[in-house]
Design brief:
The complex is a heterodimer of chains A (291) and B (262). Chain A is an all-alpha fold and 291 residues long. Chain A has two domains: 42 residues; 230 residues, Orthogonal Bundle (MetI-like fold), CATH 1.10.3720. Chain A contains 13 helices and no strands. Chain A starts with a helix and ends in a 5-residue tail after the last helix. The mean pLDDT of chain A is 86. With 262 residues, chain B is an all-alpha fold. Chain B has a single domain, classed as MetI-like (MetI-like fold), CATH 1.10.3720. Chain B has twelve helices and no strands. In chain B, helix 2 crosses helix 12, helix 3 crosses helix 6 and helix 4 crosses helix 6. The longest helix of chain B has 34 residues. The chains are: A mainly alpha (291), B mainly alpha (262).
Protein backbone atom coordinates (compact mmCIF):
# COMPACT_ATOMS: atom_id res chain seq x y z
CA UNK A 1 0.00 0.00 0.00
CA UNK A 2 2.74 2.36 0.92
CA UNK A 3 4.35 2.24 -2.50
CA UNK A 4 1.34 3.55 -4.38
CA UNK A 5 1.18 7.07 -2.83
CA UNK A 6 4.91 7.53 -3.28
CA UNK A 7 4.59 6.44 -6.92
CA UNK A 8 1.74 8.84 -7.62
CA UNK A 9 3.57 11.58 -5.80
CA UNK A 10 6.57 10.97 -8.01
CA UNK A 11 4.50 11.01 -11.13
CA UNK A 12 2.92 14.23 -10.02
CA UNK A 13 6.29 15.81 -9.37
CA UNK A 14 7.47 14.78 -12.80
CA UNK A 15 4.39 16.31 -14.44
CA UNK A 16 4.83 19.44 -12.33
CA UNK A 17 8.34 19.91 -13.61
CA UNK A 18 7.42 18.99 -17.17
CA UNK A 19 5.04 21.95 -17.10
CA UNK A 20 7.89 24.42 -16.80
CA UNK A 21 10.20 22.47 -19.09
CA UNK A 22 9.54 24.55 -22.23
CA UNK A 23 10.35 27.74 -20.36
CA UNK A 24 13.45 26.23 -18.79
CA UNK A 25 14.68 24.94 -22.15
CA UNK A 26 14.08 28.36 -23.69
CA UNK A 27 15.90 30.13 -20.87
CA UNK A 28 18.85 27.74 -21.01
CA UNK A 29 19.16 27.89 -24.80
CA UNK A 30 18.68 31.61 -25.29
CA UNK A 31 19.86 33.18 -22.05
CA UNK A 32 22.11 30.94 -20.01
CA UNK A 33 24.12 29.05 -22.63
CA UNK A 34 25.00 32.07 -24.83
CA UNK A 35 26.14 34.00 -21.77
CA UNK A 36 28.15 31.09 -20.38
CA UNK A 37 29.73 30.56 -23.77
CA UNK A 38 31.07 34.12 -23.79
CA UNK A 39 32.17 33.95 -20.15
CA UNK A 40 34.03 30.72 -20.83
CA UNK A 41 35.56 32.15 -24.00
CA UNK A 42 36.90 35.10 -22.02
CA UNK A 43 39.17 32.70 -20.12
CA UNK A 44 40.43 30.73 -23.13
CA UNK A 45 43.14 31.29 -25.69
CA UNK A 46 42.27 30.93 -29.36
CA UNK A 47 43.64 27.39 -29.15
CA UNK A 48 41.32 26.62 -26.25
CA UNK A 49 43.72 26.59 -23.31
CA UNK A 50 42.93 28.38 -20.05
CA UNK A 51 44.34 31.89 -19.76
CA UNK A 52 43.89 35.16 -17.87
CA UNK A 53 45.55 37.04 -20.72
CA UNK A 54 42.22 38.32 -22.18
CA UNK A 55 41.15 39.75 -18.85
CA UNK A 56 44.56 41.37 -18.44
CA UNK A 57 44.29 42.78 -21.96
CA UNK A 58 41.14 44.64 -20.95
CA UNK A 59 43.41 46.90 -18.92
CA UNK A 60 45.25 48.25 -21.94
CA UNK A 61 44.80 52.01 -22.56
CA UNK A 62 42.42 51.80 -25.57
CA UNK A 63 39.96 49.41 -23.97
CA UNK A 64 40.27 51.03 -20.57
CA UNK A 65 39.48 54.40 -22.13
CA UNK A 66 36.33 53.01 -23.80
CA UNK A 67 35.17 51.61 -20.47
CA UNK A 68 35.95 54.95 -18.88
CA UNK A 69 33.97 57.00 -21.40
CA UNK A 70 31.09 54.52 -21.19
CA UNK A 71 31.06 54.76 -17.42
CA UNK A 72 31.22 58.56 -17.58
CA UNK A 73 28.34 58.84 -20.06
CA UNK A 74 26.26 56.36 -18.06
CA UNK A 75 27.07 58.11 -14.76
CA UNK A 76 26.35 61.59 -16.08
CA UNK A 77 23.14 60.66 -17.88
CA UNK A 78 21.80 58.72 -14.90
CA UNK A 79 22.74 61.49 -12.45
CA UNK A 80 20.98 63.99 -14.69
CA UNK A 81 18.06 61.60 -15.06
CA UNK A 82 17.82 61.12 -11.31
CA UNK A 83 18.00 64.87 -10.59
CA UNK A 84 15.45 66.07 -13.13
CA UNK A 85 13.31 62.95 -12.81
CA UNK A 86 13.19 63.38 -9.04
CA UNK A 87 12.06 66.99 -9.37
CA UNK A 88 9.36 65.98 -11.81
CA UNK A 89 8.16 63.03 -9.75
CA UNK A 90 8.12 65.27 -6.70
CA UNK A 91 6.18 67.95 -8.58
CA UNK A 92 3.42 65.54 -9.65
CA UNK A 93 3.11 63.74 -6.32
CA UNK A 94 3.70 66.27 -3.57
CA UNK A 95 3.71 69.52 -5.53
CA UNK A 96 -0.08 69.94 -5.57
CA UNK A 97 -0.33 70.19 -9.35
CA UNK A 98 -3.62 69.51 -11.12
CA UNK A 99 -4.39 65.80 -11.54
CA UNK A 100 -4.42 65.88 -15.33
CA UNK A 101 -0.76 66.95 -15.33
CA UNK A 102 0.14 63.91 -13.27
CA UNK A 103 -1.60 61.44 -15.56
CA UNK A 104 -0.34 63.04 -18.75
CA UNK A 105 3.24 63.18 -17.47
CA UNK A 106 3.09 59.51 -16.46
CA UNK A 107 1.66 58.51 -19.83
CA UNK A 108 4.27 60.56 -21.62
CA UNK A 109 7.01 59.01 -19.48
CA UNK A 110 5.82 55.55 -20.49
CA UNK A 111 6.21 56.55 -24.12
CA UNK A 112 9.47 58.47 -23.81
CA UNK A 113 11.22 55.80 -21.74
CA UNK A 114 10.58 53.41 -24.62
CA UNK A 115 11.55 55.94 -27.26
CA UNK A 116 15.21 55.07 -27.50
CA UNK A 117 17.45 53.67 -30.14
CA UNK A 118 17.95 55.04 -33.62
CA UNK A 119 14.98 57.47 -33.83
CA UNK A 120 16.09 59.18 -30.62
CA UNK A 121 19.44 59.94 -32.23
CA UNK A 122 17.62 61.45 -35.23
CA UNK A 123 15.53 63.61 -32.94
CA UNK A 124 18.59 65.10 -31.30
CA UNK A 125 20.42 65.64 -34.56
CA UNK A 126 17.36 67.55 -35.79
CA UNK A 127 17.35 69.60 -32.58
CA UNK A 128 20.94 70.17 -31.53
CA UNK A 129 22.85 69.16 -34.65
CA UNK A 130 24.64 71.69 -36.81
CA UNK A 131 21.44 72.70 -38.60
CA UNK A 132 19.10 71.65 -35.81
CA UNK A 133 16.21 73.81 -34.67
CA UNK A 134 17.74 74.94 -31.38
CA UNK A 135 21.13 75.59 -32.96
CA UNK A 136 19.51 77.77 -35.65
CA UNK A 137 17.23 79.61 -33.23
CA UNK A 138 20.14 80.41 -30.94
CA UNK A 139 22.06 81.74 -33.91
CA UNK A 140 19.25 83.76 -35.47
CA UNK A 141 17.62 85.13 -32.36
CA UNK A 142 20.47 85.49 -29.92
CA UNK A 143 23.44 85.63 -32.27
CA UNK A 144 24.92 82.74 -30.32
CA UNK A 145 26.81 80.10 -32.24
CA UNK A 146 26.51 76.90 -30.22
CA UNK A 147 29.16 75.08 -32.22
CA UNK A 148 31.76 77.82 -31.75
CA UNK A 149 31.76 77.01 -28.02
CA UNK A 150 33.22 73.62 -28.82
CA UNK A 151 29.89 71.88 -28.31
CA UNK A 152 29.45 68.81 -30.42
CA UNK A 153 26.48 66.47 -30.39
CA UNK A 154 28.80 63.59 -31.28
CA UNK A 155 30.64 63.81 -27.99
CA UNK A 156 30.44 62.94 -24.33
CA UNK A 157 28.14 65.87 -23.57
CA UNK A 158 25.95 65.32 -26.63
CA UNK A 159 25.48 61.63 -25.86
CA UNK A 160 24.71 62.40 -22.22
CA UNK A 161 22.03 64.94 -23.15
CA UNK A 162 20.52 62.47 -25.62
CA UNK A 163 20.48 59.56 -23.16
CA UNK A 164 18.76 61.74 -20.57
CA UNK A 165 15.72 61.82 -22.83
CA UNK A 166 14.90 58.23 -21.85
CA UNK A 167 16.58 58.32 -18.43
CA UNK A 168 14.40 61.11 -16.99
CA UNK A 169 11.05 59.44 -17.81
CA UNK A 170 12.33 56.12 -16.47
CA UNK A 171 13.21 57.85 -13.21
CA UNK A 172 9.75 59.47 -13.06
CA UNK A 173 8.09 56.08 -13.54
CA UNK A 174 10.24 54.35 -10.94
CA UNK A 175 10.15 57.05 -8.29
CA UNK A 176 6.51 58.14 -8.41
CA UNK A 177 5.32 55.07 -6.42
CA UNK A 178 8.00 55.71 -3.79
CA UNK A 179 6.94 59.35 -3.44
CA UNK A 180 3.29 58.32 -3.32
CA UNK A 181 4.24 56.25 -0.30
CA UNK A 182 5.44 59.32 1.60
CA UNK A 183 2.66 59.80 4.11
CA UNK A 184 1.38 63.27 4.83
CA UNK A 185 1.35 62.36 8.54
CA UNK A 186 5.15 62.15 8.57
CA UNK A 187 5.46 65.69 7.34
CA UNK A 188 2.76 66.95 9.70
CA UNK A 189 4.30 65.14 12.65
CA UNK A 190 7.69 66.66 11.92
CA UNK A 191 6.16 70.12 11.56
CA UNK A 192 4.33 69.80 14.87
CA UNK A 193 7.61 68.86 16.50
CA UNK A 194 9.09 72.05 15.07
CA UNK A 195 11.20 70.66 12.25
CA UNK A 196 12.12 72.98 9.41
CA UNK A 197 11.63 72.05 5.79
CA UNK A 198 15.32 71.24 5.52
CA UNK A 199 15.21 69.04 8.62
CA UNK A 200 12.20 67.19 7.26
CA UNK A 201 14.05 66.34 4.07
CA UNK A 202 17.35 65.51 5.71
CA UNK A 203 16.07 63.46 8.65
CA UNK A 204 12.85 61.91 7.36
CA UNK A 205 12.29 62.06 3.61
CA UNK A 206 15.78 61.30 2.33
CA UNK A 207 16.51 58.42 4.75
CA UNK A 208 13.29 56.78 3.54
CA UNK A 209 13.85 57.62 -0.10
CA UNK A 210 17.53 56.90 -0.50
CA UNK A 211 17.19 53.20 -1.33
CA UNK A 212 14.72 54.11 -4.09
CA UNK A 213 16.89 56.96 -5.31
CA UNK A 214 20.12 55.00 -5.34
CA UNK A 215 18.42 51.89 -6.69
CA UNK A 216 16.87 53.75 -9.59
CA UNK A 217 20.17 55.46 -10.23
CA UNK A 218 21.83 52.04 -10.58
CA UNK A 219 19.09 50.83 -12.89
CA UNK A 220 19.49 53.91 -15.09
CA UNK A 221 23.23 53.38 -15.07
CA UNK A 222 22.93 49.80 -16.33
CA UNK A 223 20.32 50.93 -18.83
CA UNK A 224 22.65 53.52 -20.34
CA UNK A 225 25.69 51.28 -20.15
CA UNK A 226 24.21 48.58 -22.37
CA UNK A 227 22.64 50.88 -24.96
CA UNK A 228 24.05 50.59 -28.46
CA UNK A 229 21.60 51.85 -31.05
CA UNK A 230 21.34 55.51 -30.03
CA UNK A 231 25.09 55.96 -29.77
CA UNK A 232 25.73 54.10 -33.01
CA UNK A 233 23.18 56.09 -34.99
CA UNK A 234 24.40 59.33 -33.44
CA UNK A 235 28.15 58.98 -33.62
CA UNK A 236 28.82 56.04 -35.95
CA UNK A 237 31.93 54.54 -34.46
CA UNK A 238 33.60 57.87 -33.68
CA UNK A 239 32.89 57.75 -29.95
CA UNK A 240 34.40 54.57 -28.61
CA UNK A 241 32.03 53.59 -25.83
CA UNK A 242 32.19 49.90 -24.88
CA UNK A 243 28.97 48.74 -26.60
CA UNK A 244 30.17 50.32 -29.85
CA UNK A 245 33.61 48.73 -29.58
CA UNK A 246 31.87 45.40 -28.97
CA UNK A 247 29.56 46.04 -31.92
CA UNK A 248 32.46 46.68 -34.30
CA UNK A 249 34.29 43.72 -32.80
CA UNK A 250 31.35 41.40 -33.53
CA UNK A 251 31.09 42.71 -37.07
CA UNK A 252 34.76 42.41 -37.93
CA UNK A 253 37.11 41.41 -35.13
CA UNK A 254 38.73 44.84 -34.87
CA UNK A 255 40.63 43.75 -31.77
CA UNK A 256 42.27 40.92 -33.75
CA UNK A 257 41.45 38.50 -30.99
CA UNK A 258 37.99 36.91 -30.73
CA UNK A 259 38.59 35.92 -27.13
CA UNK A 260 39.34 39.51 -26.16
CA UNK A 261 35.88 40.27 -27.56
CA UNK A 262 34.45 37.73 -25.11
CA UNK A 263 36.36 39.40 -22.28
CA UNK A 264 34.90 42.76 -23.37
CA UNK A 265 31.40 41.24 -23.16
CA UNK A 266 32.23 39.74 -19.76
CA UNK A 267 33.27 43.19 -18.53
CA UNK A 268 29.89 44.55 -19.61
CA UNK A 269 28.01 41.74 -17.87
CA UNK A 270 29.98 42.32 -14.67
CA UNK A 271 29.22 46.06 -14.63
CA UNK A 272 25.51 45.83 -15.54
CA UNK A 273 25.16 42.74 -13.36
CA UNK A 274 26.61 44.44 -10.30
CA UNK A 275 24.43 47.51 -10.66
CA UNK A 276 21.34 45.35 -11.13
CA UNK A 277 22.06 43.14 -8.13
CA UNK A 278 22.57 46.23 -5.99
CA UNK A 279 19.37 47.68 -7.43
CA UNK A 280 17.33 44.60 -6.52
CA UNK A 281 18.76 44.62 -3.01
CA UNK A 282 17.98 48.31 -2.56
CA UNK A 283 14.50 47.84 -3.97
CA UNK A 284 13.72 45.18 -1.40
CA UNK A 285 14.80 47.69 1.27
CA UNK A 286 12.74 50.47 -0.26
CA UNK A 287 9.61 48.34 -0.42
CA UNK A 288 9.50 48.07 3.36
CA UNK A 289 8.14 51.61 3.46
CA UNK A 290 5.62 51.16 0.69
CA UNK A 291 3.43 48.64 2.45
CA UNK B 1 3.24 75.93 0.89
CA UNK B 2 2.92 78.53 -1.88
CA UNK B 3 6.64 78.44 -2.71
CA UNK B 4 6.69 74.66 -3.10
CA UNK B 5 3.87 74.90 -5.58
CA UNK B 6 5.81 77.45 -7.58
CA UNK B 7 8.81 75.17 -7.48
CA UNK B 8 6.66 72.29 -8.79
CA UNK B 9 5.61 74.39 -11.77
CA UNK B 10 9.23 75.36 -12.46
CA UNK B 11 10.29 71.70 -12.34
CA UNK B 12 7.48 70.82 -14.69
CA UNK B 13 8.46 73.62 -17.05
CA UNK B 14 12.06 72.37 -17.17
CA UNK B 15 10.91 68.82 -17.83
CA UNK B 16 8.40 69.87 -20.46
CA UNK B 17 11.06 71.91 -22.26
CA UNK B 18 13.44 68.98 -22.25
CA UNK B 19 10.83 66.63 -23.65
CA UNK B 20 9.02 68.87 -26.08
CA UNK B 21 11.86 70.80 -27.69
CA UNK B 22 13.46 67.72 -29.35
CA UNK B 23 10.06 66.60 -30.61
CA UNK B 24 9.24 70.02 -32.01
CA UNK B 25 12.75 70.25 -33.43
CA UNK B 26 12.40 66.88 -35.13
CA UNK B 27 9.02 67.73 -36.57
CA UNK B 28 10.23 71.10 -37.84
CA UNK B 29 13.28 69.48 -39.40
CA UNK B 30 11.17 66.85 -41.13
CA UNK B 31 9.20 69.63 -42.88
CA UNK B 32 12.27 71.37 -44.29
CA UNK B 33 12.89 69.19 -47.34
CA UNK B 34 11.53 71.66 -49.87
CA UNK B 35 13.67 74.78 -49.94
CA UNK B 36 12.13 77.95 -48.53
CA UNK B 37 8.83 76.45 -47.36
CA UNK B 38 7.49 73.75 -45.12
CA UNK B 39 6.19 70.62 -46.80
CA UNK B 40 5.52 66.97 -46.13
CA UNK B 41 7.92 65.93 -48.90
CA UNK B 42 10.12 63.97 -46.53
CA UNK B 43 7.16 61.87 -45.43
CA UNK B 44 6.15 61.32 -49.01
CA UNK B 45 9.67 60.24 -49.83
CA UNK B 46 9.66 57.83 -46.87
CA UNK B 47 6.30 56.28 -47.64
CA UNK B 48 7.11 55.78 -51.30
CA UNK B 49 10.37 54.01 -50.47
CA UNK B 50 9.96 50.30 -51.19
CA UNK B 51 12.52 49.44 -48.54
CA UNK B 52 10.51 51.32 -45.94
CA UNK B 53 7.48 49.17 -46.68
CA UNK B 54 9.50 45.96 -46.81
CA UNK B 55 11.38 46.52 -43.54
CA UNK B 56 8.33 47.93 -41.78
CA UNK B 57 6.32 44.89 -42.82
CA UNK B 58 9.11 42.56 -41.76
CA UNK B 59 9.38 44.08 -38.28
CA UNK B 60 5.62 44.12 -37.89
CA UNK B 61 5.44 40.42 -38.75
CA UNK B 62 8.33 39.74 -36.37
CA UNK B 63 6.52 41.67 -33.65
CA UNK B 64 3.33 39.66 -34.13
CA UNK B 65 5.18 36.32 -34.15
CA UNK B 66 7.13 37.35 -31.05
CA UNK B 67 3.91 38.21 -29.27
CA UNK B 68 2.16 34.96 -30.24
CA UNK B 69 5.03 32.64 -29.38
CA UNK B 70 6.08 34.69 -26.37
CA UNK B 71 2.60 34.41 -24.93
CA UNK B 72 2.41 30.69 -25.68
CA UNK B 73 5.59 30.35 -23.63
CA UNK B 74 4.88 32.83 -20.85
CA UNK B 75 1.18 32.30 -20.03
CA UNK B 76 1.32 28.52 -19.45
CA UNK B 77 4.53 28.92 -17.47
CA UNK B 78 3.17 31.68 -15.25
CA UNK B 79 -0.03 29.65 -14.77
CA UNK B 80 1.81 26.47 -13.94
CA UNK B 81 4.14 28.16 -11.51
CA UNK B 82 1.21 29.74 -9.66
CA UNK B 83 -0.74 26.48 -9.60
CA UNK B 84 1.81 23.79 -9.02
CA UNK B 85 5.30 25.10 -8.39
CA UNK B 86 5.09 28.23 -6.26
CA UNK B 87 8.43 27.24 -4.72
CA UNK B 88 10.34 27.97 -7.93
CA UNK B 89 8.79 31.39 -8.45
CA UNK B 90 11.94 33.24 -7.36
CA UNK B 91 13.99 31.27 -9.88
CA UNK B 92 11.56 31.98 -12.72
CA UNK B 93 11.39 35.65 -11.81
CA UNK B 94 15.16 35.83 -11.73
CA UNK B 95 15.37 34.23 -15.18
CA UNK B 96 12.80 36.64 -16.61
CA UNK B 97 14.80 39.58 -15.27
CA UNK B 98 18.06 38.38 -16.82
CA UNK B 99 17.49 40.14 -20.16
CA UNK B 100 17.53 43.44 -18.27
CA UNK B 101 20.82 42.50 -16.61
CA UNK B 102 22.66 41.15 -19.64
CA UNK B 103 22.88 43.81 -22.38
CA UNK B 104 21.16 42.87 -25.63
CA UNK B 105 24.39 43.16 -27.56
CA UNK B 106 26.02 40.56 -25.31
CA UNK B 107 23.10 38.15 -25.70
CA UNK B 108 23.16 38.37 -29.47
CA UNK B 109 26.95 38.03 -29.46
CA UNK B 110 26.48 34.73 -27.66
CA UNK B 111 23.87 33.62 -30.21
CA UNK B 112 26.21 34.36 -33.10
CA UNK B 113 28.92 32.21 -31.58
CA UNK B 114 26.68 29.46 -30.24
CA UNK B 115 24.37 28.97 -33.21
CA UNK B 116 26.77 29.42 -36.11
CA UNK B 117 27.25 26.87 -38.88
CA UNK B 118 29.49 24.57 -36.86
CA UNK B 119 27.31 24.31 -33.77
CA UNK B 120 24.84 21.70 -32.54
CA UNK B 121 21.98 23.96 -33.58
CA UNK B 122 23.15 25.79 -36.73
CA UNK B 123 20.37 28.38 -36.83
CA UNK B 124 22.33 31.06 -38.66
CA UNK B 125 22.93 28.70 -41.58
CA UNK B 126 19.69 29.50 -43.34
CA UNK B 127 17.53 32.58 -43.74
CA UNK B 128 14.61 31.01 -41.95
CA UNK B 129 16.86 29.76 -39.19
CA UNK B 130 18.15 33.29 -38.67
CA UNK B 131 14.61 34.65 -38.73
CA UNK B 132 13.73 32.11 -36.07
CA UNK B 133 16.78 33.12 -34.02
CA UNK B 134 15.79 36.79 -34.31
CA UNK B 135 12.30 35.93 -33.09
CA UNK B 136 13.78 34.04 -30.14
CA UNK B 137 16.01 37.01 -29.37
CA UNK B 138 12.98 39.33 -29.40
CA UNK B 139 11.15 36.91 -27.13
CA UNK B 140 14.13 37.13 -24.79
CA UNK B 141 14.12 40.93 -24.91
CA UNK B 142 10.42 41.17 -24.13
CA UNK B 143 10.44 38.41 -21.51
CA UNK B 144 10.73 40.74 -18.47
CA UNK B 145 7.77 42.85 -19.60
CA UNK B 146 5.60 39.99 -20.83
CA UNK B 147 6.12 37.84 -17.77
CA UNK B 148 5.44 40.66 -15.37
CA UNK B 149 2.33 41.81 -17.23
CA UNK B 150 0.88 38.28 -17.33
CA UNK B 151 1.85 37.45 -13.77
CA UNK B 152 0.24 40.66 -12.49
CA UNK B 153 -2.96 39.85 -14.35
CA UNK B 154 -2.88 36.31 -12.96
CA UNK B 155 -2.62 37.62 -9.42
CA UNK B 156 -6.12 39.08 -9.70
CA UNK B 157 -7.75 35.77 -10.63
CA UNK B 158 -7.95 32.68 -8.46
CA UNK B 159 -6.04 30.24 -10.61
CA UNK B 160 -6.62 27.18 -8.41
CA UNK B 161 -10.39 27.63 -8.12
CA UNK B 162 -10.77 28.36 -11.82
CA UNK B 163 -8.84 25.21 -12.65
CA UNK B 164 -10.82 23.05 -10.24
CA UNK B 165 -14.10 24.45 -11.54
CA UNK B 166 -13.09 23.75 -15.12
CA UNK B 167 -11.86 20.27 -14.23
CA UNK B 168 -15.04 19.36 -12.38
CA UNK B 169 -16.98 20.36 -15.49
CA UNK B 170 -14.87 17.91 -17.42
CA UNK B 171 -12.48 20.27 -19.20
CA UNK B 172 -9.16 18.96 -20.49
CA UNK B 173 -5.88 20.85 -20.18
CA UNK B 174 -6.03 22.66 -23.54
CA UNK B 175 -9.57 23.81 -22.76
CA UNK B 176 -8.56 25.04 -19.31
CA UNK B 177 -5.59 26.91 -20.70
CA UNK B 178 -7.07 28.48 -23.80
CA UNK B 179 -10.71 28.95 -22.86
CA UNK B 180 -10.35 29.65 -19.18
CA UNK B 181 -6.93 31.03 -18.27
CA UNK B 182 -6.05 33.01 -21.42
CA UNK B 183 -9.32 35.01 -21.56
CA UNK B 184 -8.99 35.84 -17.88
CA UNK B 185 -5.49 37.27 -18.21
CA UNK B 186 -6.25 39.00 -21.51
CA UNK B 187 -5.47 42.44 -20.08
CA UNK B 188 -2.00 41.27 -19.08
CA UNK B 189 -1.50 39.54 -22.41
CA UNK B 190 -2.44 42.75 -24.24
CA UNK B 191 -0.22 45.02 -22.13
CA UNK B 192 2.67 42.63 -22.71
CA UNK B 193 1.85 42.55 -26.39
CA UNK B 194 1.86 46.33 -26.84
CA UNK B 195 5.16 46.88 -25.08
CA UNK B 196 6.67 43.99 -27.05
CA UNK B 197 5.43 45.56 -30.26
CA UNK B 198 7.02 48.90 -29.35
CA UNK B 199 10.32 47.19 -28.52
CA UNK B 200 10.45 45.05 -31.65
CA UNK B 201 9.55 47.86 -34.06
CA UNK B 202 12.51 50.01 -33.07
CA UNK B 203 15.05 47.32 -32.18
CA UNK B 204 18.36 47.79 -33.94
CA UNK B 205 21.22 45.82 -32.39
CA UNK B 206 19.95 42.28 -32.75
CA UNK B 207 18.51 42.67 -36.23
CA UNK B 208 21.66 44.43 -37.46
CA UNK B 209 24.03 41.83 -36.05
CA UNK B 210 21.92 38.96 -37.36
CA UNK B 211 21.77 40.76 -40.72
CA UNK B 212 18.02 40.73 -41.06
CA UNK B 213 16.17 43.44 -43.04
CA UNK B 214 14.26 44.87 -40.06
CA UNK B 215 13.00 48.40 -39.49
CA UNK B 216 15.76 49.33 -36.98
CA UNK B 217 18.71 48.72 -39.33
CA UNK B 218 16.76 50.45 -42.10
CA UNK B 219 16.37 53.52 -39.88
CA UNK B 220 20.10 53.52 -39.22
CA UNK B 221 20.83 53.17 -42.94
CA UNK B 222 18.59 56.11 -43.83
CA UNK B 223 20.14 58.15 -41.02
CA UNK B 224 23.59 57.64 -42.46
CA UNK B 225 22.59 58.47 -46.03
CA UNK B 226 19.79 61.03 -46.11
CA UNK B 227 19.12 64.44 -44.62
CA UNK B 228 15.43 65.01 -43.94
CA UNK B 229 13.95 61.53 -44.10
CA UNK B 230 15.47 60.50 -40.72
CA UNK B 231 13.48 63.11 -38.82
CA UNK B 232 10.31 62.09 -40.64
CA UNK B 233 11.08 58.49 -39.64
CA UNK B 234 11.76 59.58 -36.05
CA UNK B 235 8.31 61.18 -35.94
CA UNK B 236 6.76 58.02 -37.37
CA UNK B 237 8.64 55.86 -34.85
CA UNK B 238 7.52 58.13 -32.03
CA UNK B 239 3.94 57.82 -33.24
CA UNK B 240 4.23 54.01 -33.18
CA UNK B 241 5.61 54.05 -29.64
CA UNK B 242 2.92 56.50 -28.60
CA UNK B 243 0.20 54.33 -30.11
CA UNK B 244 1.49 51.15 -28.43
CA UNK B 245 1.84 52.85 -25.06
CA UNK B 246 -1.51 54.59 -25.39
CA UNK B 247 -3.23 51.27 -26.03
CA UNK B 248 -1.31 49.81 -23.08
CA UNK B 249 -2.59 52.58 -20.82
CA UNK B 250 -6.17 51.93 -21.91
CA UNK B 251 -5.79 48.21 -21.31
CA UNK B 252 -4.21 48.62 -17.88
CA UNK B 253 -6.88 51.09 -16.84
CA UNK B 254 -9.42 48.46 -17.84
CA UNK B 255 -7.47 45.98 -15.73
CA UNK B 256 -7.68 48.17 -12.65
CA UNK B 257 -11.46 48.25 -12.76
CA UNK B 258 -11.53 44.44 -12.59
CA UNK B 259 -11.76 43.04 -9.04
CA UNK B 260 -8.29 42.70 -7.58
CA UNK B 261 -7.47 40.06 -5.04
CA UNK B 262 -3.91 40.20 -3.79
Amino acid sequence: MATIPSFTLNRRTVIDWLGVAPFMIFAILFLILPTLYLVRGAFLTQEGAFTLRNIADLFTPTILSSYWISIRVSLASSLGGVAIGFMLAWAITLGALPAWIRSSLLTFSGVASNFAGVPLAFAFVATLGRTGLVTLLLRDWLGFNLYSTGFNLLSFLGLTITYMFFQIPLMVLMLTPALDGMRREWREASEILGASNWQYWRMIALPILWPSLLGTFLLLFANAFGAVATAYALTGSSLNIVPIVLYTQIRGDVLNNPNLGYALALGMIVITGLSNVLYLWLRSRAERWQK
Amino acid sequence: MKSSRLFAWIALAIGATYFLVPLIGTFEFSLRMRRGEYSFDAYQSVFSDMQFRATFGYSMLMGLLTIVFGMLLVVPTAYWVRLRLPQIRPLIEFLTLLPLVIPAIVIVFGYLRLYNSSSFLPLTNSTNGTNLLLMFSYMTLSLPYMYRAVDTAMRSIDVATLTEAAESLGAKWPTILFRCIFPNVMSGVLSGAFITFAIVMGEFTMAALLNRPAFGPYLQFVGANKAYEPSALAIIAFAITWLSMGLLQIVSRFQKTAPVKA
